[in-house]
Amino acid sequence: MNVDIFTQQIQVMHKRLDALYQGVSTSTQLQPELLPIAFKELGTASEELQIAIEELLIQNEELASVKASLTRERERYQHLFQSGLEAYLIADKYGTILEANQTAAKLLNVSSQFLVGKPIAVFVDELERQIFCLKLTSLQQQKQQELELNVHLAPRQDVPFDAAMTIATVNGLQGKSLGLHIRIQKLTPNKQKQVLLGKSESEFSQGLPRHVYLKGELIPLKPKTIWQVCQGIVKLSTMSERGEEVLVGLVGPGMPFGSDLTVLHTYQATALSETQLVCFSLMDIESYPHLAQNLLPKINLRLQQTESLLAISGQRHVKDRFYRLLQLLKQEVGQPVSQGIRLGVRLTHQDLADACSTTRVTITRLLGKLQEQGHIIVDPKNHIILTEK
Q1: Residue 324, CB half-sphere, CA atoms under 13 Å: how many?
Q2: Which of the listed residues 26, 159, 338, 340 has the most CB atoms within 10 Å of its CB?
Q3: Using one digit for the tens of pLDDT, what is the confidence trace for 218-254?
Q4: How many CA atoms lie within 13 A of 83 on its CB side?
């Protein structure tokens, strides 16, 4: 029986009894014919109340049974969740941990109760944290159901490790995001090999976490580590004996660089635009032959570029060095446009001067002369366009 219906029945009976009471109290003499009616009404009300009570008792028993069943299901779920062999986290839509099982707590080296309330991003390596947060935001904005990525996790006071992470969104009835279910799987060397060897060469680097550097930022060069450019341009430079910067390479998409690819004691990598990089260890290259095969042609291109820069530096006249440098840039970072070939990276006059071993004033004068002759155009964003003249 519905509680609202039961309430209405009680109210109706109260009104009927009240009407009887009013009839008796207003009479100067007790009317005997009212007694049978009153007893009949009371009897009917009593029977209806008894039936209602029996129905409520049955419903209470059913509700108690359902509650007990739900409690058992929840306890079973909690047991399965806590004793699961894989690490699981439940988070809100912003990535703040609401619940963590024992495996996740052990993996992150923090007890389950202290994981609650912490953003999952704090356990992602600092170099990867920005791109990880961007991917979480993208997951919500694009209304994706699931995101798979490899991340470098840094557990509390423990050795960092590589992990495969699956993040699934949990939506309500109206499609509104309620939270995230996160599964973390530590990648042992064998599992890394299975994951990486199962992908094509182009997918290999896409499956790795990307490191983002903004224009002008220095890129750290770690030993036994190779960077590969996914997007943007990186300038490689050294210092001369006179303390002047010397350009030794421009690294574009797909090309590798690192401290282990040079013998120079002073070696610096600078992002010339917003740059995305992936990182390989020398152990990765030794372990996965197809990775080495993929990188070898790119290293060969770097060697050819270095030889071209050496040939440019051997030119006696500054104008010849500058002209040869523009031709090399046209080949390396050129983009076809209606007026000619546009250099995809914006180099300052000082950058060009360093590459030609001359002064900024000389480069400014040579650029002005080439503009007057119509050999180059500078677009509104200060990119150089080499014309066909």
Answers
A1: 18
A2: 340
A3: 999 988 888 988 888 898 888 877 777 788 888 888 8
A4: 6
CATH annotation of 201-313: 2.60.120.10
Any bridge partners for residue 171, and if so which? 177
- The Cα 335–Cα 85 span in angstroms is 52
DSSP string, 94-138: TSBEEEE-HHHHHHHTS-HHHHTTSBGGGGB-HHHHHHHHHHHHH
Homologous superfamily assigned to 87-187: PAS domain (3.30.450.20)
Distance CA 156, CA 337 (A): 52
Whole-prediction pTM value? 0.47
The CATH architecture that domain 318-386 belongs to is: Orthogonal Bundle (1.10)
Cα 324 to chain center, whole Å?
A: 42
Highest mean pLDDT among 9-23, 95-109, 272-286: 95-109
165 Cβ neighbours under 8 A, 6+ residues apart: 148, 149, 150, 151, 182, 183, 184, 185
